Structures are given as structure tokens and as C-alpha cells.
Amino acid sequence: MGGVPEARAAAAVSVRPGLMLGLATVGFAVTFWAWALLSPLGATLREELSLTAFQQSLLVAVPVIVGSLGRIPVGALTDRVGARVMFPFVSALTILPVLYLGHLADSYAKVLVGGFFLGLGGTTFAIGIPFVNAWYPPARRGLALGIFGTGMGGTAISAFTTVQLADAYGRSFPFNLVAVVLAVYAVVSYLLLRRFGGPGSERLSAAIGLFGMFNVPFVYWSVNLWRTLHPKTSVVPTLPVDMGLPLWFSTVAFLGLTTVLLALRTRLERRKAELDALHLAVDERE
Questions:
Q1: Which CATH architecture has domain 14-285?
Q2: Domain boundaries, the chain
Q3: pTM, whole model, 2 decimals?
């Protein structure tokens, strides 16, 4: 019986960590591309649906807030079932709100509902961090996590292509394209991703997932600062100037949740470590 864990470990090591890192980074970029689909269309939706500035702000903010807060339960599920299940599952599930927004959402309420569920795409940060961390030793984790972090460029892909594709091929085209890419990635990741339980990966996922939830408002502050310094920019012209209230609310909520939930998670992990040590001692006696 002792040879079974050794055989599993040998099989895991035989898989190239670089492949796992590449798959995780691509998945991060694709889901973030989907997550950011509504923001570039803010001005178009405002004209089509006759929205106020606040309504437009809410449409942009809802996927961000949901995606940020959703990293907590998704990170917890990743600890239990692993990224090999969560990456394809979240990617496939995100297809539904993407297609809904592209074809069925024709009113403010419908777009708001679609944006709520579109926030699921922003939760993959909490899936990839513990996964990548588990595949690399401490001396190489910083570089690996930095490479994985480039997947946030998916939001840039959305910013630079969504409006152009919608103008050239119709408003539903960018949503159809992203849905196809998500479907392909879901299949590929399910077939190729492997699980490797590196030491400390479960403990790290909670802290980094919460940090990822907290840092999102700073992206908006950066965009708002860019618009202030470059008022004639054509890169991010649709961010309303009255986003201050929801951003401050998000920041305070994120700080509070970060403090409380990280403390609770740390306490639970200590209890889990004590139980694991107790089970190990019992096994050794038997």
C-alpha cells in the first residue's frame, strides 16, 4: 500500500509545471476577458437603454463586485476539489451569462442580472493562485505567480476589441467569440490540467484570494486618474466621474471582509492542522 502515494507523486512530477502554468494563465486571461465585456460597451448601452450616469456606473460595478466577493467561496471550493475541476467548471458556467448578455438582455434590468452572473468570470484569480503555487518550489513561486498574473491582460483584450468587434460585426459578436473561447478552454483544461498538492497551497489560497478581492477598486481609481489626466482619451472614455461612492463603499467592505474572513480562515486552518497531526499520530500507532 505504501507504493500507491509514491506512484501518484511520481506521476504528478512527470507533468511539466510549465504546461500547468501556461494553462492556468490562459484560463485566467480568457475568463477575465469575459468578465470585462460590459465595461467597453457602457456608452453604447447608455444610449440604447437611456440610462442615467448612476445606472451606467452600476452596470460596470456589479460584475466587479460580484467577481471580487465570489473569490471567497470559489477559493474555498478550489481547496476542496482542486483547480482541475474548478477551472473548466467556472469557464463553462461563465458561457451562460455571456450568451445571455449577447442575445437576450434587451433592458436595463436584464443587463444588470446578466452582469451579476458575469461576475463569476472574475473569480478565477482564487483558482489559479493556489494551483500555480502548488506546482512550484518557494524559490520559483514569485516568478511563476508573476507570469500567471499577466492573465489580467484579459481585461485589456476586452477594452481594445469589444467595441471594434461590435461595430464591425454586430453587438452580439464579441459575446459569441468569448463564449466559443471559453468552451474550448473548458474542454482543454479538463483534459490537460493535473492536480499537485504542494505544501502550504491550501493555506495560501485564502489569503491571496482575499487580497485579490480587495485590489479591484484600485483598478478603477487608476482608470479614473487616467481619465482625469487625459480627458480626451479614447481608451477608457466611458467611466463616469460619479463612481466615487460605490468605489469607497467597495473599499470599506473589502477591508472589513478581508480582516474578518482571513482571521476566521486562519483559525480554521490551525484547527485543521491540529486534526491532521492527530490523525497522523493515530495512524503511526496503528
A1: Up-down Bundle (1.20)
A2: 14-285
A3: 0.66
